[in-house]
Structure formats: structure tokens, C-alpha cells
């Protein structure tokens, strides 16, 4: 009865919140938990198999991939959407999924869990599988909190019987290896693909004895084939990516001799893909089902998403920590076509209020001739610009436009592709702006088409003189703005 009451109250709160325009994504979970304290335990009544996915980067993509692959194979799936990966958010997902009376049983629950929330989530509901993607040191680590976090996660797993699917290439994830006996390891073979390397920072040291690792292959950050004299070494993988390369629509993987074309952009997605393939094999999917699902997958908004703006393909990717920033930059710099880089930086709660992590992005690697313009945007545009300046980027290349729409319009006038990095709360408005630009362009093309003057429709800008560049009024040049907002920053 208490449980039913919690569901009804949660549903009512969610509806009320949506009616007053507050979205209501987690409120229903908060209310349900007030009535039924360990509400998450009911996840068991919602799915026959439960998979948790956690880690610093890639958990949303991995979770979405798994849910998609399972669904296209005909299984019913309960999944939480991004932003609701804490216990209240997951509880809200259960409330939403519940019919008026009781619960609805699914084949699989695919639940993304925030790292800090994992111990609580495990205490309330033990999953059948836990996937750990990676752990990247960011600003947290200045206080040694990553190690603490990992220890807490490990403690919560000690007395439970969970099958772990671990990224063997990450020494941090490998710290989970002594917990259970039935671990599955996945990774990338030594010569799986060509990756641009960047600074590893503090992560190249063994977490057990603090000695520097010996690497025979480095893929991304600290991910690769490592070994330490103390015996802490990359484990043998059960399933591995033998080859990964950029295909026409996305990366292509060879796993266990089978070829998997995907729609995923960015070489680093090979990790998310192999974790998803492994999980789906465990759920009984065959190669054909996984292969078809991967080809049909449409990535969620803002994950290496392409937009056709003018005659150019623009790219947008979410960046929320240095590791994510570095892989995004190395993806963006794979071609040497003329381009501009837009960095949209906000500091709301969801972005992380401390933005000192931007100093750990290797912005220096973007200081190249073909990157002709650097636009700093968002609430903390000035900090983004300052980071660019300290990367050695010439000041005349750096433009500060805090309004994202202005940044887009400015870049569009330049007439060559823009590659955009956006923090969490910048992402959705940026997608909206770009979709609108792309949409208006479609309309414009149709309109011009009715004139049947080919050269006009092809180069309308040059004909009408709109291609001329005007400095937007609110543009702030670098001079005189560098001293502001230098809180917590290291030059
Ligand atoms: Zn060691």
C-alpha cells in the first residue's frame, strides 16, 4: 500500500510540476522516496535483468546504445534518460514506468548511475551487471577525491553478487578486478587503431604502488596496455576490438573477427561500442542483431552531432571534463581543412560550478594554422578565451561572444565549418540554434529554387552582398578583459 501511495504521489507531483512548466524530471522520484524510503528496490519488479552503467565518460552513450540494441532485437527495456542518473532520478523513472496499479515488467533495465550515487543505488537494488566505462582525473582529483570515490564504490560491491563488465584498458577501472570472480574484461587491441595522444598527467602512475606505468600502447589518456613492476597489469580481455577505423557513416569495428559498421562518430566511441556489444551478448543477442542495431543507431543530441550549415558540416560535442575535451579536440583536428573552434562554457550546477578543469584541456594542440578563428561563448566566455590565450593562440584569432546565437551567426558568416565544444547546459540551446539555422537554410534553398537562376541559388550571399563581414556590436575583443574571473585558475 505504501508503495502504491508513493507511486501515485510521485505521479501527481510530476504532473503538477510539468503543468507549471518545471519539467518534472526528478520531482516524482523525490516525492516517492519521501513516502517509500528505499523506493529504488522496486527496480526488481520492473525488469528481469538489471544493468547499471557507471564511470566518468561515455556512460550515457553506452547506456543508450545498449537500450537501443536490446529494443531493436525485440526486448522490452526500461531506461533512465540522461540527467536522471542519481537515486531520485532513477526512482522517477520507475514512477513514470508504473501503470496505475502495480509495476510493469520489462526484459531489461538499463540504468545509467552517477558514480557518487552508485553505493546507494547498489544498497537499494543490486543489479545483475555493472559496467564501468572509465575514470578520468579532473578537478576532483586535486583533492584526491577520485581515489576516495573508487574506494567507496568498491566497498559497496564487496558483499554483493554482481557480474562486472570492466574496461581493461583503464588502470583505474582495473582496481575493481579483485572484487568478483566472474569479471568480464573488454578493451582495444594494441594496434586496434590510430589515436592522437595527449598529456596523461597524473594518471600514468600505478594506483597500487605509485610507480610509473610501462605502456606498450596508449589509446586515450591513461587508457591502453599498461604494466607495473608490482604486478598490477592490464588484464586479458574476453572480448576486444581488433580493429577500429573511420568508415563512411561512422567508426567500423572488428570484434571477434566480425565486422560492425556503426553510426558513431569519434574513435573513442570504440570503447562505448565494445562495452555495449559485450552487454548485449550477455543478454543473448547474436552478432546479426547487434550489427543491425549498431547501423540503425541515431546518436542522441550533441554527441559528435553533424549539422549542415551553409555548405559546411559543423560538428557539436558535449565536453564536461578535460578528458572529454581532449578526445573532442583530437577528433576535431583529424582533418586539416580550414575551420573555426567554438567553446561554449557555462558554470551552472549541471556544468560544474568550478570551471578550473578547462586548464587541463590540451587547448595547445588546437593552435594550428588551419584553425582560423576561436570563438569563446557562454556565461564564462571570458574564461574560455583566457584559456585559449594561454594556449598560445594569437589574440587576433580569439573572439568573445557570450551569447551563443551570436557566436553561431558570427561563425556562419565566415563561410567555413565550425567545430563546437559545449558544456552540459550549453548543449541543448546550442542544438536548438543549430537546428533552426539548418532548417532556415532548407527553406531558403526552396525559395531560391523557384527563381530558377542557378548561380543565384548557389551563391546567394556573394550576389546580394551579404557575405560581407560585419563585426557584431556586442563583440568583445581580448584587450582589457583578461583579468576578470580568474578564480581557481592556473595559467
Ligand atoms: Zn604498481
End-to-end separation: 59 Å
CATH topology of the largest domain: UDP-N-acetylmuramoyl-L-alanine:D-glutamate ligase
- How are the strands of the biggest sheet laid out side by side? 2-3-1-4-5-6-9-10-11
Radius of gyration: 24 Å
Strand content: 15-25%
The count of DSSP E runs of length 2 or more, i.e. the number of strands, is 17
| CATH architecture identity of the largest domain | 3-Layer(aba) Sandwich
Instruction: Please give the CATH class of the largest domain.
Output: Alpha Beta
Mean model confidence by pLDDT: 84
Q: Catalogue the ligands.
A: zinc ion
Structural class: alpha/beta
Can you identify the CATH superfamily of the largest domain?
Mur-like, catalytic domain
Global morphology: globular
The number of helical runs is 15
Give the count of structural domains: 2
Helical residue percent band: 25-40%
Q: Summarize the biggest pleated sheet.
A: 9 strands, mixed
Q: Segments where pLDDT lies below 50 for 5+ residues?
A: 446-491
